[in-house]
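User: Sequence in, structure out. Go.
Assistant: Echoing your sequence, followed by the structure tokens.
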Amino acid sequence: MKLLKTLPVAAALIALPTLALAQDATPSFDEIGPYIMTTLLFCMAGFLVFFMAAGFAMLEGGLVRSKNVTMQMTKNIALYSIAAIMYWVIGFNTMYPGDFNGFFAIGGPTVLDAVGVSAADAALDYASVGSDFFFQLVFVAATASIVSGALAERIKLWPFLIFVVILTGLMYPISGSWKWGGGWLDAMGFQDFAGSTVVHSVGGWAALAGAIVLGPRIGKYGKDGKVIPIPGSNLALATLGTFILWMGWFGFNGGSQLAMGTVGDVSDVSRIFANTNMAAAAGAITALILTQVMFKKPDLTMVLNGALAGLVSITAEPLAPTLFGALWIGAVGGAIVVLAVPMLDRLKIDDVVGAIPVHLCAGIWGTIAVIFYNSDATLMTQLTGIVAYGAFTFVVSLVLWVILKATLGIRVSEEDEVNGLDMAELGMEAYPEFSRG
């Protein structure tokens, strides 16, 4: 009996060396902690940027007339869904060659991560592929949303969605690979932390090409060249959309730190949050003051876009500046919007929500502003990147819009535009109990 009692003890003593070896083979938290924390950063930042899709939808829904609101909601949910599929089918692998081990997703694995990733495997990578893929994906949809707002109230649904397929599946991933995929601009030293150019100006260039081919809305410009304001349906909704975008931008810029495995990384993320917030506030206040001075009354739509322009301006370098640096960079962005909107009107380029001044003009400014705080950036390199992205995106977009116009037609009829796209294209209204205006 005593022998039986001692057997488990003896067995445990014999197994101790083996257990010690197994324990030694298991990576410590110091080794797998960065993987866990960076994966968490990607997931959290990713769903903040995903929520920006709601912000774009609300902003656009508030700035178009009530007879076109349902159309904007349809475009926004459709473009996000298209982006999600196209970025999986071809976009991600085009932008980051080798991550799926095949040019098309169907040529690679069907899942992003093996079920039950081992601690040893985690210690060898910086984050899960699934979290990385999702984080990169939500940026693509933001680019397409920029185009949606600029071309509102007169474009047909299906030609627009065909353009989104090409933009999210090919155009954005190809140009994105030049910087973020380790391409030629990255090798040259071009700096764009979170996408003032890679994301925002790309959307702006595509929108500019579309607005030129599409033409202005009926009644926007008088025969004498006078600009006729066309008020949106719900400024409260537009304001809500701006605040949602502002919040989502913390994920947009903060997640672009791409690491949260050290004290330094976490500190940098918090610094990015503070700078992002400061730039937005400065852009809004600048637009508020400038519109009072120029138009004798503050313009809420300009203030909203001023905040967004401040956000776009700081996106190229949200880490390096001081809080004062973020303030003046964002302030310049807010001023750019107030000045660029009338400039577009003089050129009779009709941008319904001000997407081109916000995302293109402020995006260019933000990319140039990098040189003031990032010693790795030079003016010539930054200008090279701006011109490369602009030439590629504008020319390809212009060709696509012309082809779509010649084949399917991209603009609704005059009667449909007057009656509203909600009924003409979709047969339903966002506000059926109210008269259309």
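User: And one key feature?
Assistant: The chain has one domain: 34-110+124-426.
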